[in-house]
Amino acid sequence: MSKKTNKNHFSPVFANKYWTDEESGWAYKYYYYCKYRCLVIDSHKDKGKTAWGYELNLYPQSLEDRLDVELESDSSKLYEKLISGDLLSTDERMKWGQFIITQALRTPSFFKYRDYIEDTNNGDHSYKNTLLGCASCEDNKYIALRNWIILEAHSDDFFIRTDNPIYMTGCLDNTTTTIFYPLTPNLCFIACSYVETVLLPKGMELPFPKQEFLQLEKGDANHINFELLKSASNSIILAKKNDSSTFSKMALDMLGHFPQIPFMLSSASNSLAEADLVEKLTSIMSVVDGVEYPSCREYLFNPFYGVEFSMGVNPFSVFGITNNGVSDQI
């Protein structure tokens, strides 16, 4: 059983640690929104590897204990396997699905929107006690049955981590939704969009989902970071060696510009139903945050099936085609 604490990490230390090392003094580079000055701050103070990704009294001790024992112990091992390129079994894929879904649900950003809904409907905040599902829960299949791509940043590029670590382009049960989760400054996990079984030839079963690495071209990770920055709530971290004046300007201008829509508050299995839901969710976000968000947000990487690069399509490039595709047209 974990030790009693009111310091609840919504982004686990075992995952955050990859953004720091001995050379950096075990500290992150840190940008955050200061509510008193109403602007984004380029912090010049070091953030130790356990000093980011938590909030005091975020959830009850009982949930803290369950997350530690029932989820994070196993998930930390799967995290290492994904980074190493080891293929996960069916049961392990379901467990990883549980981790991804729980990670999307346990953030301060998600809680404040859910709390608002509970408060306006005479509910309570006891939902936190049931936040952690089980490894065999049906929802986990929405992650486990998709193809997985691990994006590798170009050697000149990197990935950041935000306080909304899971970047979702739509609802969990929408087949076109793509789900991003940076694993390290060099690697980003993607649960791809998938083809509905009704579209398959009669008698054909879906093959076992893929788990592959995909090398990005120079600049692609920057395009992804731009979207991740917008989806943050209040703060981000990056490896200190990756900070630059160019990135700093982008962070100061774009951090939290349009935070992650809390898709996990509801479901929508098709784009039409999702469009109506997004309008309702962004309305809630506007009230809670005191910001007039647009009625919809365009997620540029939606859908992504993991086969685009082989077809000369690069959704992560501002040009929309791969370098080989450019060469073919010259």
| Mean pLDDT across residues | 92
Task: Report the sheet-strand fraction.
Answer: 5-15%
Give helix and strand order, one letter per element, not per position.
EHEEEEHHHHEEEEEEHEHHH
- Counted beta strands: 12
Write a concise keyword list for the protein shown above.
12 strands; alpha+beta; 330 residues; five-stranded antiparallel beta sheet
Could you characterize the architecture of this molecule?
With 330 residues, the chain is of the alpha+beta class. It has one domain. Helices cover 33% and strands 14% of the residues. It has nine helices and twelve strands. The strands form three sheets. Strands 2, 3, 4, 7 and 12 form a five-stranded antiparallel β-sheet that branches. The chain has a five-stranded mixed β-sheet with strand order 8-9-10-6-11, with no helix packed on it. A hairpin with a 4-residue loop joins strand 9 (179-182) and strand 10 (187-191). Helix 2 crosses helix 3. The longest helix is centred in the N-terminal third of the chain and has 24 residues, at 61-84. The N and C termini lie far apart (62 Å). The mean pLDDT is 92.
Task: Give a summary of the structure in a few sentences.
A hairpin with a 4-residue loop joins β9 (about 180) and β10 (about 185-190).
List the helices and strands and how they pair.
Layout lengths: L6 E3 L3 H4 L10 E8 L4 E4 L4 E2 L5 E3 L4 H24 L5 H16 L2 H13 L20 H4 L3 E5 L8 E2 L4 E2 L10 E4 L4 E5 L19 E5 L4 H12 L3 E4 L6 H10 L16 H19 L33 H7 L1
Helix pairs in contact: 2-3
